[in-house]
Each structure stands twice: as structure tokens, then as C-alpha cells.
Design brief:
alpha+beta, single chain, 34% strand, 7-stranded antiparallel beta sheet
């Protein structure tokens, strides 16, 4: 019984660490070299901006949903016409979900380390290719 209690406490502490880490990232939205701002639109057409890390492969530009909070990703799937701002320059893009061989290639080219995956609670990772319109 004591072991179960210790495991439950450890699990609750771990969940707390993940919630705090994810909340800080969402609040601070660290931007810099290698990031972009994506503007997605909800069902009512209201814009929502999110700072994301750029993922480049060959000539293609991608972003990935690396965290449990991923409203921007769901909005991009529902309405793939998005705006992207890179280094202060804004352009219109179409967000295309990635799967299969392309997804596997991106996972291999741009892996996340164990520490990052641990702090984010091991969320599944989804990529979106951003094609200029």
C-alpha cells in the first residue's frame, strides 16, 4: 500500500511538472531565430496567433504540434488557410497535414530529445506542411 501511495504521489508531481512547463511555454511563447508566428482562425473566424518552431526540410517549410495544448493545430486542420509571419514578413499559406513516409522522415530528421519529451508529457507529434498560396 505504501508503494502505491508513493507511485501516486510521484505521478501527481510529474503531471504538475508537465502542466507548469506547458503553461509557461504557452504564456511566454518564446520567439527568436528559428521561429515563426502562425495565425489560425476558429469557427467564428476570429484570428489566433501562436509562436512555433520552424521545421525545414529541403525546400519545404513545416511546423509541428509538439505539446498537449494544440488548438492552433486543430484550427489549421479545420481551416487550412493561415497566415505565417517569418522574420517580420507575413504571407498567406495553406496548412497541409503530413502523414506516412513524409511524417516518418521528418521525425527522423528533427527528433526531440528525451528531456523535452519528458517535460511535455510525451505527446504525439504531428506535422503540418506550409505551402505558400
Amino acid at each position: 500500500m505504501r508503494l502505491v501511495r508513493i507511485l501516486v504521489i510521484l505521478f501527481v508531481v510529474y503531471v504538475g511538472i508537465v502542466v507548469v512547463f506547458e503553461s509557461l511555454l504557452g504564456w511566454v511563447q518564446p520567439a527568436g531565430e528559428g521561429t515563426l508566428v502562425i495565425t489560425t482562425y476558429d469557427e467564428q473566424g476570429a484570428p489566433h496567433e501562436r509562436v512555433l518552431a520552424r521545421v525545414e526540410s529541403g525546400e519545404d517549410l513545416y511546423v509541428s504540434a509538439n505539446h498537449w495544448p494544440r488548438a492552433w493545430y486543430e484550427q489549421a486542420l479545420a481551416n487550412p488557410e493561415v497566415l505565417v509571419t517569418i522574420d517580420g514578413v507575413q504571407g498567406a499559406y495553406r496548412a497541409i497535414p503530413v502523414s506516412g513516409v513524409e511524417h516518418d522522415r521528418l521525425m527522423a530528421e528533427h527528433p526531440h530529445g528525451f528531456g523535452f519529451r519528458f517535460l511535455t508529457g510525451f505527446p504525439p507529434r504531428y506535422f503540418v506542411r506550409l505551402e505558400p498560396r
